[in-house]
């Protein structure tokens, strides 16, 4: 498991929790519970933002990720060259 995939899983989990808290806040008539769920929703939004920022940083600065992207681009270019030469 890589840090990148862990971050992606963490973001998905945080987004799911954010949606759950939003749903709970909108479906309750209890003012104290509504306030609590809204606060939890705001906290989770901060988590999503922090995780997303970190994932973006990893995508830009991780040398292994850059090598992987370069390899993928080279493979795509080779495939396009093969298709072009077949015509």
Overview of the structural elements:
Residues 68-87 are annotated as: Disordered. The protein is mainly alpha-helical. It has a domain at 3-62. The protein is 92% helix and 0% strand. It is built from 3 helices and no strands. The chain has helices at residues 3-27, 31-61, 63-86. Helix 1 (3-27) runs antiparallel to helix 2 (31-61). The longest helix has 31 residues, at 31-61. It starts with a helix and ends with a helix. The model has no long low-confidence stretch (mean pLDDT 85).
Tally the helices: what do you get? 3
Instruction: Give the averaged pLDDT, no decimals.
Output: 85
Shape: elongated
Q: Helical content, roughly?
A: over 70%
Oligomeric assembly: single chain
Largest sheet: none
The rounded distance between the terminal residues' Cα atoms is 41 Å
Low-pLDDT stretches are none
Derived from helix and strand composition plus strand pairing, the structural class reads mainly alpha
Radius of gyration: 21 Å
| H and E string | HHH
Strand fraction band? under 5%
Strand tally, please? 0
Give a quick rundown of the structure:
The protein is an all-alpha fold and 87 residues long. The chain has a domain of 60 residues.
Give structural attributes.
87 residues, mainly alpha, elongated
């Amino acid at each position: 498991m890589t840090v990148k995939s862990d971050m992606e899983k963490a973001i998905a989990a945080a987004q799911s929790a954010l949606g759950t808290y939003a749903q709970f806040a909108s479906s309750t008539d209890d003012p104290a519970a509504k306030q609590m769920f809204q606060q939890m929703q705001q906290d989770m939004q901060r988590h999503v933002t922090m995780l997303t920022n970190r994932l973006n940083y990893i995508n830009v600065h991780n040398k292994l990720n850059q090598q992987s992207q370069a390899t993928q681009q080279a493979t795509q270019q080779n495939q396009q060259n093969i298709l072009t030469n077949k015509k």
